[in-house]
Each structure stands twice: as structure tokens, then as C-alpha cells.
Amino acid sequence: MTHFAIETKDLSRIYKIRGNKKEKQIRKELVALENVTLTVERGELFGLLGPNGAGKTTLIKILTTLLAPTSGWARVAGYDVIQHPNLVRPRINMVSGGESSGYGLLTVRENLWMFSQFYGMPSKEANQRIVELLKMVGLEDRIHTKSSDLSTGLRQKMNIVRGFLTDPEVLFLDEPTLGLDVGAARDVRKLIRSWLEADKSRTLLLTTHYMVEAEELCDRVAIINKGRVLACDTPANLKRNLQRDAIFEIETSPLNGLTPQLLQNQPEVRKAALTDIEGGARLELILQEEAALASVINILTQKNVKVRRLTKREPTLEDVFMDLVGQKMEDVEKEEAPHAG
Amino acid sequence: MNRSETTRSFTMATWLGWQVESNWTDPFLFAVYVIIKPLASAAILVVMYSIITGGAYNSPLFPYIYLGNAFYTYVGAVMAGVSWAVIDDREHYKTLKYMYIAPINIPFYWLGRGVSRFLIGTVAVIVILTAGVLFLNVPLDLTQVNWGLFFVSLVIGVTMLAMMGLILASITLMVAHHFFLIGEAVAGALYLFSGAIFPLEVLPAWLRPVGYAMPITYWLELMRRSLIGDVAQAFPTLAQYSNLQLLGILLGLTVVFAIVSVFTFRWCDHRARELGLIDRVSNY
User: Fold this and answer.
1) Which of A144, B20, B219, B268 is the most core-located residue (most Cβ within 10 A)?
2) Could you tell me if the ipTM is greater than 0.90?
């Protein structure tokens, strides 16, 4: 038996998209995953970090046997997801965040109990575990509430409990804290940690586009964009590559037509990203050396842009992403949004 | 207790289906709905029959139509009940993907989801038959009923309808939400071709083969024969066949549909995974 909980080799997925009524005959292809090769060890909390539309959910769908890859192969818990889906399924579970799935006419307990029965759990054990897990996410007082009467956030908590309830060998959490408030997201992260600590053979694959979440939770992170894995390492190692660089955050008055590209044309400016804020802009810069800051300030002065605040900071995964992709994650998402759906 | 995958898929789906079908209102309103709805649909047919024939309730045509219509309730209930589960789980509850990744037997899960509608359909059939006997002189004498033939035909017939439902469920997996009435639409179309409310001879000759190819035609004839015996044989459609021959044909066609349903499910399931349709939400 392999010691990998998840293995993929050259995994690709291409969607064929039909045009609208006028362009019915024109078939476009969307590459959702391109030659993804990954290994996740047993006991690891592995993060897939990337913007919306990067291919994270597509990868999870393939690994959970919901979707066939176009090419390549994948194994979960030692079994090929295409050849032996029936051996994979008893060993996995999955929760997608940001959706309110579940049978609204059933209570929280009934919803969870029913799923436990589909997995063949003894009823008594399932009921005990339901209470334990609901306590851990602060939902025990809603155990007899119909799930249609729960808020979206509480319903999401119920679904997260459903994922942990069956105690899978490999658990897939797809954006589990999406749309949750700060407290609820903290509860979920706590649950993730304690579940993994309780049994070192348990494996969890988490997708997120929250950098802090990936940084806080994951043993290793793969950064994914446009279907390709750009980097895969521990958060510390990913950031270490940037520690030679100087990372600055500058808040300024309005930029008067100054673009990030103009700054990036400077030889020592590796990456520059711009975010509009109230009454001005925030520049995030990755510089090869601190001395390059002078030329940036010089350009700002020439453009009559005032510097209001300047901060030097340690690299984050957001910086790693910007370094790899050339854009901040939210900018990638904004670019992709008009093409989505 | 460690139940097999197939058993727990079927029993839990039956439990879930019953909760979904019966929990939408309070028990009293649910009971009223279960009784009133079939009576209302039967009443429409009786009124139409009465206007067209001038109230000829003693004609053998009346029990033919009345019983055919009563048992046809099962066709819509079972076929639509099984196929509806796909749309309900995928589009409404958004749970189909979680069912698909669970270690369950999907065809048996869908069949289990259809059981509640079968039970509600059974109540409807009993209500319609009781009303027919009490108020419309349907010549149904419980002492004269061929109970053996009745139960054997019922079991084979419901199995056949479940297999047809499975075919529809598999096709439903491939299509979008606006096909949500696929089960009832097919049941409605077959209403005309299966001898439910008129003998096949009424159909144009080129349409009759459709009726002869449908196991529902033979099943309805068997149900009528088991309940009212010779009266049901007053029409020439299947008069040349004995009960045993009809049972053989029904059983044979049921086996054919069962085989077709297995292959249809496998193909649709495979294609749905290829095309990414299992968790598709059409947002219509």
C-alpha cells in the first residue's frame, strides 16, 4: 500500500463549452486542469491555494470520483479514482463551502444521521458523534432544528460536520469557510486541527483562496492558477524564496495615471500591484533590494503622487502568489469574473 | 448492524423519500391531499364519460376505463417518483454529489426514493377503487377477485414501472432542470398508448404497435382481469391471450426493461462523469 493519500500524474481536464444560440456550432475548450502532478502524504493537511476558477474544485471533483479527467491519472487512499471508484468512496468525504445543501425538511440531527447511515455507521455511534461534532462547532443547541430554519452560515456548519462525521481516511474541504463569519470560520479551523491531531493517519485536502487560512493551517500548499500548479511546498519554504526581496506597502494619494506596469519597468522592481482605496491607492511592491525604493519614490514624486504611509513587511503567501502570477489574487479574480459562468 | 451497501441504500432512501414526501405539511392536510387528489382526478374522468355516453355506467366500458385509470396512478407515481429524485437532489437540495461520493448503490438509492410515491399511489388506488364500488357500481366483488393473479401481477408490474423509472432517472441525469417533468410527461404520453382508458383498437393501426410493445398494456389488462374477471375480457385487444400468457409477456418485457435500465444507467452515469453533470445546477 502506497504511503501517499493522494497521487496525481499529468492530470488534465478540458471542458467543451457550447456557444450561445447564434454560435451553437462553435465549440470552445476550457482547460480547467493542465498536467497536474501532486502527491499528498498520509497525515498531511494539504492546501490548494488559488483564485476562483483556478481549477481547485475541478481537481477535487476528480479526486472524489465525481468527474472524469481528460487525461492522466489520480489515486486516492491508494486506489485509482477511475478504475476503482467503489473502493475510493468508503474512504473519503467532501464538503463544499458557500452552498446551503441539505434536506430542509429534516432536522440537523436527521440530516447528519441519514448520511452516517449511508456510510454504514452504527446508529448509536453516529448519534454520539453527531452531538460531539455539533458541540465543537457550536451548533448543539440547533440539533432538533429543521435545516431550512438555519441561516446559511449555520447550514454550512452542519455540512462541515457531515464531512467529519464519517471519519474518512481522506477528507476534501472545498472552500469550507467561504461566507462564514470570523467566529464561525475560527470554529471550523479549530475542528480541522483537532480532527487531524486525534489520528495522525488522517489526511485533509483543503482548497481556499484565503491566504491566511492556508498559511495558518496547511503543512504544504500548492499554488494553482489557470489549471496549472505553479509551486508546491511548505508555506515557510514558499515564503523563504522571497525573503531576499524587500516587500513594501505604500499608501498614496490618487495615482494620476500611474500604472503598476510603469513601476515594473524599473529594473529592481520585481512585481507591483495596485489596489484602489478611499481617497487614493495602495501599492504593493516586491523589490530586489531596498535601494530600489528610491527610484519608486522618485517616479511617484514625478507624477505628483504623495506618499501617505510606507510599510516594510515580511513576505506572505499573497506575495508568493503575486511573485508567481504577476498579479494579486483578487486582481486575477476580477479579470476572470466577466468570463465566468 | 452492518448492512450491505444495496440494503442500506434502498432502506435509507425509502426513509428519506418518505420524509420528503410527507413532511411538507401537517399530517391532517397531508391525509386530505392524499385522498382528495386521486378522487378529483377520477371524478374528471367519470364526468367526461358520463357526458359522452349519457351515463352508461352499466356498460363494460366503464369498469374498463375506471380500473385502467385507477391503476395507471402507479405509472406516474413510480416512474416519476424514481426519476424525480435526481432533479430534487441535484437542483433543489444540492445533495446529489454527496450521494454520489457516498458508498451507496445509486440505482437502489433512486428506487428507494420512489417507494414513498408508490405508497402514496397505493392509497390513491384504494381510494379510487372504494369510491368506484360504493358510488359508481363498479362490479368489483372481493370474494370473486383472483388474489393470486392480482398480487403476482402487481409485484411484476411495479417492478416493471421501477425499471422504467430507472431508465428515466438515468436520462434525467443527462438533461437540465427544465426537463423536470420528464417522468410525468412520459407517463402522460403512455396513457394514450397503453389501453388505460380505451382499447388499443381505437388507435390508428400504425400507432397500435406502440401499445403492444408497452408492458403497461399487459399489466393493466392483468389487473382488470384479476379484479373483475370476464368483464375485462369483453374487449378484443388482448382477449386471445390467457392470463398465463399475459403474465409471461409482462414478465418477459419486465426483464427486457430491467436489462435496458442497467445499460442505460451505466452509460448515462459514465457520460455524466465525463461531462461533469452530476453536480450541475441549471439555475432555471
Assistant:
1) B219
2) no
